[in-house]
Amino acid sequence: MPGCLFIVLLICLLDISSMQNDSCINGNLSAQLFSEPGDYILGGLFPIYSSIIDMSTNGSPCLCFSSLNWYGFIRALVMKFAVEEVNDMNDLLPGIRLGFEIFDTCMESVVIMQPSMLFLSEQWTQAIRVQCNYTSYQTRAIAIVGPSNSEMMAITGKLFSFFLIPQVSYGATCDIFSNKNLYPSFLRTVPSDKLQVMGMVKVVSHFKWNWIAVLGSEDEYGKQGLREFSNAASQASICIAYEGLIPVYTDPRPAISEILDRIKQVEVEVVVLFSTRYAISKVWVASSGWSIYQDVSLLPNIQTVGTVLGFIYKGVQLGRFEPYVQKLYKQLKMEQKSSWSNDSSFLAEYFGVTGQVCPECICSFDLSVLSQPLVKLTAFTVYAAVLSVAHALHRLLDCTATRCKSVEQQFYSWQLLKQLQNTSFQLNGTLFQFDANGNPNIGYEVITWVWDDTPIFTKIGEFNGNLSIQSESIQCGEERYLELYQNSALSCGDLTTHTSPLFTDDFQCTACPQGQWSLMSSTNCSYPVYTYLDWRDCASVVLLLLTSALLVGTTIVTMLFIKYWRTALVQASGGPLNILMLLGLKASFCSLALFLGKPNDLVCRLQQPLTSFISTVMMSSLLATSLQVTCVTEFPGIAASYYSLVRGVASWLVVALAVILQAGICSWHILNSPLLSVWIANKYVNFLTAFLRCQVDPMTTFCLMLGFNGLLSLLSFMGTFMTQKPTKQYNMSRDITFAALAYCITWVIFIPVYTALSEMTKSLAQMVAIILSNSCIIASYFLPKCHLLLSRPDLNTAEYFHIYIAGVTPKSTVDESNGASIAARRRSKE
């Protein structure tokens, strides 16, 4: 694959030699304007001319207009100035001369590829050598300064990154270039748009504006800025009433007219603009692309647009640059008549273009532009790019103040990149360095336009992650104007009280589709996200630990009853009914798993019916045992005749009847309860997050299932509550009474508490109620028997449980009772 790539590159480079002609170097100043030899070469990419006029098809360079882009031209001069200053610093690169080659990009992708290919050629040649491994490949340029914007950077970034050639941009601000997986060799001396967007959102929030319009130029800078601002504003609860793009490459006037109409329709007074040219009206929050752009600030009647707040890079003034350019131009004008009149082609060679050139344009443009704030500000970004490479080279060559120790040793671009990424240096007392993503440590200044004959750009704050606004720097009139719009700000909530807003393509506030919702000020609708009672939640873990302990305890009790199966206690207390109750308790504890995890249709169909049905098995067994005790204690005269029937068929008939009735109620509930998926689909959504649990519907059958179990416990309680304890016999009534009463009280309390709880706590409350009621049965009914089995085996006799086994009081007990009665009568007669 790499071989195929570079075959294509070599084809593109067939005519690259036409871009560099050593015979043109005559030693005079003008010939060295955009190229200077050195031990190491820096490549420069700058928009010096405006655009191309001939898209050549035979491989020769493209022709550019002769109209000079003075802004790009001055930045190219900054690179020349910076390199010369580096060479004049005896302690930075002692004994080494840094050279440079600057080429015009014409702001066109087809043009920028030609010098980019030249920079990739092998050192001191004009051809790219094809090889499998480029680790030891030395390129013509050790580093690249440029290009000027994100669109051009998108073209060259991956190309240079393939060779790991350091590329330091002075103007590409899109945040995508911070991705080191895509652009490993990219660095920049301007903050990314992401930081600027954060600052603009902070400013809008600071003044409490939450009903705004956002505009961007229809290029990569504007589109990316608009996209990032909209996302950040939505998270900050800022309503974006309108989003629009202003054409860059076509006539913008029709689009601007339509944009103005739209802004009037949505009645916004604050506009955030990511653009390089255009302004309309209202309160403006300007990006760095136009906040101090003189073509805008000097437009006729610009003072009528309202208040302008802008962002500009924090930088260092280059005091020596303006005198340098003035001196340079004096020398150029002295050579103009002799050199340029005789041979005008050499200048074209060093611009990287051929054909029409305009040397007169270069020497005749107004030098007063050097004093413009935009020039003074952005000159620093180019200067810092050159200085950062020089300091990285200083570290790589192990330089001291007097010599560079590794000057004879070869190095490669990836080695320089590593040093550059970790370089820091002082620039006029300001520390400059790159972070891990290649972004500089400089932030933004917040300015406002103060109107005089021309706008004066006045600093009112700073932003570098944190916003600080100096209120005293805002003039009284401007401050009242800002407060006016603060007090009249609208919110999306003002538009509708029943539906959540969405700003669609027609920029109207409309309701979300069924099943979706949006946050206030959001620009899109979303399906809600449901949370549920997770197994790892703290409450779930606590209940699971408690349930596990009780489940182990219930298993131990079951094993104990099986071990002592043939003893009087186990048989007298119900025999098989005890085992049925214990199995029901264990099943009830296991059924708590239905309340945990993500609910689904099957789980929700089983949750309430299954837990209620298991409880019915337990309580019907307890009721059957209660009937046996009632029979022998309340009807001793006839109990012996029918007791075997009561302990056998009658008890199991009670259990079977209760289970059948509860099964009918549970089936009714299942048939009438909707599927969870259907319930979610039909639910009116007015939220983005909610707790999801199995819905208890219909409530009537739910209450019947709980009520039926409550009835069983109440009957058990009533059957044993008033019975007398048999003389010298185990008190079985006590165990049943307390177990039934505790169960009944637990669920009576549960019902009113349940109705007042939130969705999440309802599930937890029901789990707690099941655990508590089961624990009461274990503690009240089974633990006393376990205590007797283990601690009082002498009482585990047929005589002590005779009344519950045979249905009659033992004869010895009757004789003692009769004897006691006779003795009492005798004492009364005496």
UniProtKB/TrEMBL annotation:
Protein name: Taste receptor type 1 member 3
Organism, scientific name: Erpetoichthys calabaricus (Rope fish)
Membrane topology recorded in Swiss-Prot or TrEMBL: Multi-pass membrane protein
Membrane-spanning intervals of the chain: 541-565, 577-597, 617-637, 649-671, 699-717, 738-757
Keyword Methyltransferase: no
Lineage: Eukaryota, Metazoa, Chordata, Craniata, Vertebrata
Keyword Chaperone appears in the UniProt entry: no
Signal peptide: 1-19
InterPro entries: ANF_lig-bd_rcpt, GPCR_3, GPCR_3_C, GPCR_3_Ca_sens_rcpt-rel, Peripla_BP_I
